[in-house]
Design brief:
9 strands; EC 2.1.3.2; four-stranded parallel sheet; Rossmann fold; pyrimidine biosynthesis; 2 domains; 313 residues; 15% strand; alpha/beta
Amino acid sequence: MRQDHLITATQLSRDDIEAVLDRAREVADDPGAFADRHAGHVLALCFFEPSTRTRMSFDSAAKRLGMETIGMGDVDSSSVSKGESLSDTVRVIEGYADAMVLRHPSEGAATLAAEHVSVPVVNAGDGAGQHPSQTLLDLHTIRENHGLDDLTVGIMGDLKYGRTVHSLAAALTNFDVNQHFISPESLRLPRSVRFDLHETGAQLREHTDLDDVLGDLDVLYVTRIQKERFPDENEYHRVAGEYQIDAETLDDASDDLTVMHPLPRVDEIAPDVDETDHATYFEQAHNGIPVRMALLDTLMENAEADEETEADR
């Protein structure tokens, strides 16, 4: 993988993805071999929206690589509350860190940040846009359970506002995968995302009923209905709770079906699914450590190579 930043899953080729996932497997097999590999470097965690898994796993991944981490703390106590622009904020933070992870409520925020700094930027979610590092750990989870070719994947729930969905759907086009999208009509994939998928020649179908496709699936990727993204709360209440699964729902599924969820869940997956062999979402969350270690290791390695090249000129 030869990238300076990770902003969107669409920038990743199959070779890029496999390079990171191969390294993630190496990390998982022998994490000690990667300890202190980037000692003396600092990662800035710039989170303008709430986060548990992404923020903590990046923090843990960086420290396992020997890096220090710094954070903005609560946005309301930062200079953002005084009206500082995102471009000014990241240009200042660039002087304090060797790489940054950015989560922001506005689509395109990570792209803007990458245009203003020279250190690696990882998009940790930009509104309803993209979340590519989540996609890498999703792909790692799928690969460890099924491989990444000759698969049928169902993605269910909030497909309109779900940035994890947009990233995963784009990345899966690099592999031999049939994609099925299950959602209410009001939460279908955005037209722009559907267009981009069709342009790649992706094999995809849309459904409103999980039963139409459940028996054919190798992977079911469930997402919550994202209340915070809805401009109209009444629209949210019309669809909230409409797409839920429990252990009984999965009676007609393949024995090998893997159920995934980027978390947090609300009520879309009942707790009784946790006790089935299908449940993989906690394993999926834990995969954030080796995958984000592999990603940071790769980006820092690339940045260090660029510095050496500049020094030789």
